[in-house]
Amino acid sequence: MTVLRQRHKNMILAGSIGFLLALVLLIIVYIIGIRNNPQFIRWILQEEELQVEKTKEEAEIPKPILVEAYVFNGGLRENDIIKEEDVSVTLIDQDLLPDQTIHDSKEIIGKKIKCDSTPKMIATKTMVYEEKTRAEIKESVEMLGVSVPEFINESDRINLRIHYPTGQDFLVLEDVTISKIYEERKGGTLELNHDEIVCLSSAKEDINMYPGTQIYYTKDTHRYSRPFIGQPLRNMYPVNPNTIGFLTSKYKGQDVYEERLQLDESLIIFFDQESEAYSFAQIEEIINEEEVNQEEVNQEEKTQNTIVEETKIEEANVENVTTQTIGF
After folding, report:
1. What is the pTM of this model?
2. Measuring CA to CA, which residue among 110, 210, 114, 218 is closest to residue 174?
3. 1-43, pLDDT tens digit by residue?
4. What residues contact residue 129 under an 8 Å CB cut-off, 6+ apart?
């Protein structure tokens, strides 16, 4: 029995080995036959070409460039003030970002939103706004009739002063920008806020009211050194009562009214023809009196000269008569 079992096992093992050898031989013959097949060869070449093209395409596709951008964390309502916890920073492909994307917290924190927001919405500059006061909003104002000095250039920070015929001089505009200078320097464009426009309007009205009043430009060459930073210039201009009510901040108080009253009073006295104070009428009167006095002096001198000449003639006649008498 043992010998039979052993022979049976050997036959099974030999059959298995023979089957495997036949299978391997069949596979080799099949492969050799396929590789010699033109269709198979074309298929292999096409697959290789497709693989090469795919590799090139993958190599040509640029890697995305991620940049930081602000997105809203939750839903905000229109006109809500944006707080720090309302937004967060995330990385987004720069090619997917909309125009005017916000990248700096200063451009969004503390400002108001123009529309309702949703979570993960990308924040843009067009979606937010900041309320500004009249003092922060600048307007371009055309300034004609006042020549711009040669030492002032476009974009300079300048001052504008007003000078009255009484000798009084005030600062109308302080540290404002002249954005444009016209041909032959006959005027310029100033960038002014609301209060500065009111002060300039008041100064123009004073020019119309008081003859001899002039506006002129100055440029402070020392104001921006360290000791002068933040120090306002002195002798600010008190606007006239017709425009003082339009001011929103500085120089709108009782002190301004009192200072303006003193200025108007001095100007009224100066231009009052019946006043005994020093005025144009008084100057004209003094000049006329001087002319009259000069004419009287000239007349007296002429009279005196005439008398002297007549006296000399009489003396000469007397001398001639005496000489003739002695000779006789």
Report:
1. 0.49
2. 218
3. 555 566 666 677 766 776 777 677 667 656 666 555 566 566 6
4. 111, 112, 114
Give 266: exposed, middle or buried? Use CB within 10 Å, 0-12, 13-18, 19+. middle
Residue (of 158, 205, 163) closest to 181 by Cα position: 158
CA atoms within 13 A on the CB side of 206: 30
What pLDDT digit, counting tens, does each position of 170-228 carry? 999 988 999 999 988 889 999 998 888 989 999 999 998 888 899 999 987 765 444 54
Inter-residue contact 270 to 166 (CB < 8 Å): yes
In which residue are the tokens 């104001």 written?
Answer: 223
For residue 109, what are its two tokens?
Answer: 């924190």
Pick from 245-249, 272-276, 294-298: least confident = 272-276
For the chain, give the mean pLDDT.
Answer: 77
Give start and end residues of each alpha helix (H) in 163-279. 194-209, 241-244, 254-271
Q: How confident is the model at residue 229 (pLDDT cuts 50, 70, 90)?
A: very low
By CB neighbour count within 10 A (0-12 exposed, 13-18 middle, 19+ buried), where does 226 fall?
A: exposed
> Cβ–Cβ contacts within 10 Å for residue 155, how many?
10
47: its two tokens: 């697959």
CA distances from 287 to 174, 280, 292, 294, 297 (A): 40, 11, 9, 10, 15
Q: Alpha-carbon distance 128 to 81, whole Å?
A: 9
> What is the C-alpha to C-alpha distance for residues 246 and 195, in angstroms, rounded to an integer?
8
Q: Tell me what pLDDT residue 149 has.
A: 93
Predicted confidence (pLDDT) per residue in 293-325, tens digit: 788 877 887 787 777 777 777 666 656 555 555
What does the DSSP assignment read for 142-191? EEESSPPPTT--TTEEEEEEEE-TTS-EEEEEEEEEEEEE-GGG-EEEEE
Is residue 140 within 8 Å of 129, Cβ to Cβ?
no
DSSP 8-state assignment for residue 236:
B
